[in-house]
Amino acid sequence: MKQIIFTAILGFCGLTATISDAGNFKITDPNQGHQIFTDALNAKDLDILVDIYADDAVMVAPGNNVIRGKENIRAFFVETLKAVESITLDTVFRVNYQDTVVFRSNYTVVYKTEDGQTVTQAASGIEVERLQPDGTWLFIVDHHYGGTDLAKFMQMNQPQ
Questions:
Q1: What is the DSSP letter of 30?
Q2: DSSP state, 108?
Q3: What is the mean pLDDT of the chain?
Q4: What is the tally of structural domains in the chain?
Q5: Based on the number of CB atoms within 10 Å of its own CB, is 50 exposed (0-12), middle (13-18) or buried (19 or more)?
Q6: Both ends of the chain: CA-CA distance in Å?
Q7: Which residue range forms the structural domain that includes residue 42?
């Protein structure tokens, strides 16, 4: 039911995505990947978050933690969804080359720390989508801070 409502919202916004017979969420237009990711994270929809990554995807998460494979990405999002309250994300640019699209994003995430403090953090990521044999697109690389000037990032995100 949650995915049906999510798909209806996407349709209302003019976004293109489908749910396969198995219930897996598919990106059918690579330009919608960021919006689908943002909507899924804000809706705390673990299944959609995981469905938009390739089985062999690589993610670089906070602490320069390299996460490989869809099941490990799922485990990362299980924990992430416990803390994240919201995210806003803007696509800065995208470069299409044959079956690959590279994106740079600016995003702001609001989350709760283990002690209950609310933290707002801004950064810039780099993401890569690859065209799949079925005509859909999946994220193959997601580097949370890949587009961030780390010196500025550390200054901007110091506790107050």
A1: G
A2: E
A3: 84
A4: 1
A5: buried
A6: 42
A7: 2-156
Nearest to 141 by CA among 80, 73, 92: 73
DSSP string, 31-74: GGHHHHHHHHHHTT-HHHHHHTEEEEEEEEEGGGEEEESHHHHH
CA 101 vs. chain centroid, Å, equals: 14
Q: Provide the CATH number for the domain around residue 18.
A: 3.10.450.50
For residues 33 and 8, what is the distance between their CA atoms, to the nearest angstrom? 16
Render pLDDT for 13-48 as a digit per residue (tens, 0 to 9): 344 444 433 346 789 999 999 999 999 999 999 999
pLDDT tens for each residue of 75-98: 999 999 999 999 999 999 999 999
By CB neighbour count within 10 A (0-12 exposed, 13-18 middle, 19+ buried), where does 136 fall? buried
Based on C-alpha coordinates, what's the Rg of the chain?
A: 15
